[in-house]
Amino acid sequence: MSASAFLRITRPHNAIVAGLTALLGYLIATGTLTVPSLLLAVIVALITAGGNVINDIFDIDIDRINRPDRPLPAGKISPGAAKTYALALFLSGIVLAALTTPLCLAIALINSVILVAYAARLKRTPLIGNVAVAYLTASVFLFGGAFAGVFGLISNLSLAAITLLATLAREVLKDAEDVEGDAAGGARTLPMIIGIRRTGIFAFACACCAVAVSLLPFGRWWGGFYLAGIAVVDIVIVAGAARGAACTRPDCVRASRATSILRAGMFAALAVFAIAAVI
Ligand SMILES: CC(C)=CCC/C(C)=C/CC/C(C)=C/CC/C(C)=C/COC[C@H](O)COP(=O)(O)O
Ligand SMILES: CC(C)=CCC/C(C)=C/CC/C(C)=C/CC/C(C)=C/COP(=O)(O)OP(=O)(O)O
Ligand SMILES: [Mg+2]
């Protein structure tokens, strides 16, 4: 079992971006970063890594078909070692969160439970799994703001709402892409119940709501740069969701690249938030 396999199973790009997003949440809430606030990035990275490892543990059978290259199906890490590793990651993040504030610790504990519940069960339940991932992604802003107290958390509510809606749109479109594989794996997802077309329309509605909420920070906190930057991002988000809404089959959703366009728009939005927070 190699060190690179233990690193790869954590999906480090995902964990690092999540950790940096927590710092962005603290920056937005306070206008600054401090040495203690850097701990937020470590905590979120550790817990996100734990969530990614536990996800692969529960997904080993379907990943043997869909993603045989991943460390567990490829035999690079044993299931027992992965379970110990996931536990160590979660416990490390929670112990460090105990050094922050009670609100941050509460979010860390709740999110750890949701990450395990998602891997074990929620991801195979229609819409609830999608909402869980959308909440987890949005909660990163709340976690960062919470380090500055309740008002810090409140100051990140609009960004959390934007993130939740946009992530929900993307998650249901990802399910629309994977209908055949999910059905074979015994999962019940939203597209299986309401169909691809209605799922695309639902995702488009969520994306439009995210765009509407994204205009809230303009004028209240951020000025012209934010409006110009978020307008470009909003166009990308709406265009991506519109491509998915036009589809009636999984292969069309995949060919539309709607989920990739949405992902690019979401990461671009992080950059707009970060620049708007410091200029
Ligand atoms: C309308 C509008 C302006 C929407 C933007 C909403 C927004 C700021 C989304 C940011 C979401 C994001 C990328 C947060 C970073 C931290 C995090 C939780 C990352 C987790 O992974 C997200 C990534 O999409 C996973 O990619 P994949 O493995 O392909 O599903
Ligand atoms: C704020 C704190 C303390 C923690 C936040 C925890 C975070 C940021 C989670 C964000 C990343 C996330 C939503 C992970 C969910 C688990 C996961 C890997 C989902 C994707 O798994 P699948 O749906 O099985 O799809 P793949 O495994 O094929 O990617
Ligand atoms: Mg998985």
What does this structure look like?
With 279 residues, the protein is an all-alpha fold. It folds into 2 domains: 1-149, Tetracycline Repressor, domain 2, CATH 1.10.357.140; 156-279, Four Helix Bundle (Hemerythrin (Met), subunit A) (Up-down Bundle), CATH 1.20.120. The protein is 79% helix and 0% strand. The protein contains 16 helices and no strands. The chain has helices at 3-8, 12-30, 38-58, 60-66, 79-97, 102-120, 128-146, 150-154, 157-177, 179-184, 190-194, 196-214, 217-220, 224-245, 250-256, 258-278. The chain is globular, with a radius of gyration of 19 Å. The site of geranylgeranyl diphosphate has 21 residues, from helix 3, helix 6 and helix 7. It is a multi-pass membrane protein. Belongs to the UbiA prenyltransferase family. DGGGP synthase subfamily. GO terms for molecular function: geranylgeranylglycerol-phosphate geranylgeranyltransferase activity; magnesium ion binding. Its cofactor is Mg(2+). Keywords: Cell membrane, Lipid biosynthesis, Lipid metabolism, Magnesium, Membrane, Phospholipid biosynthesis, Phospholipid metabolism, Transferase, Transmembrane, Transmembrane helix.
Quickly describe the structure.
By secondary structure, the protein is mainly α. It contains 16 helices and no strands. α2 packs across α7 (128-146), α2 (12-30) runs parallel beside α16 and α3 packs antiparallel against α5.
Properties at a glance:
about 280 residues; mainly alpha; Tetracycline Repressor, domain 2; 2 domains; binds ligand LD7WCAPV; binds geranylgeranyl diphosphate; binds magnesium ion
